[in-house]
């Protein structure tokens, strides 16, 4: 994980660094070749200097574009679980808060919950999860 790391005891002081390095190693070791191939292919198409100014979230917005979120479509295509329903007080508070958000804040909320800030062309009814169609769920 780190040069000479086998000789460094894990303590409270370096525990966070150890965990971060361990997580990075475990995640990266299985997909190194695939990631390198993807990055090489991406940079064959796009000049690295043009994208180096963006972080991952901003780059996704540049590639996928930003869309004005239709709150009515979002709300009409939301699923509720755990005793919640469209008229539940907590859900009314949730939508009241989302209504006060500007579009960028709404996109960030969508990205936090779903992992992407892009909205399907067909709208929220066509949102997809990692294993197929999946409605926004509260």
3D architecture notes:
The chain is mainly α. It folds into two domains: 48 residues, no CATH class; 71 residues, Hect, E3 ligase catalytic domain (Hect, E3 ligase catalytic fold). The protein is 52% helix and 6% strand. It contains seven helices and four strands. The strands form two sheets. A two-stranded parallel ribbon has the order 1-4. It has a two-stranded antiparallel sheet with strand order 2-3. A hairpin with a 2-residue loop joins strand 2 and strand 3. One of its GO terms (molecular function) is ubiquitin protein ligase activity. Keywords: Ligase, Transferase, Ubl conjugation pathway.
List its salient traits.
single chain; mainly alpha; two-stranded antiparallel ribbon; 7 helices; 4 strands
How is the secondary structure organized here?
Blueprint: H1 15-29, H2 32-45, H3 48-51, H4 56-64, H5 71-76, E1 78-79, H6 89-100, H7 103-114, E2 128-129, E3 132-133, E4 136-137
Parallel strand pairs: 1-4
Antiparallel strand pairs: 2-3
GO cellular component, one term: cytoplasm
Catalytic activity: S-ubiquitinyl-[E2 ubiquitin-conjugating enzyme]-L-cysteine + [acceptor protein]-L-lysine = [E2 ubiquitin-conjugating enzyme]-L-cysteine + N(6)-ubiquitinyl-[acceptor protein]-L-lysine
Domain HECT: 1-138
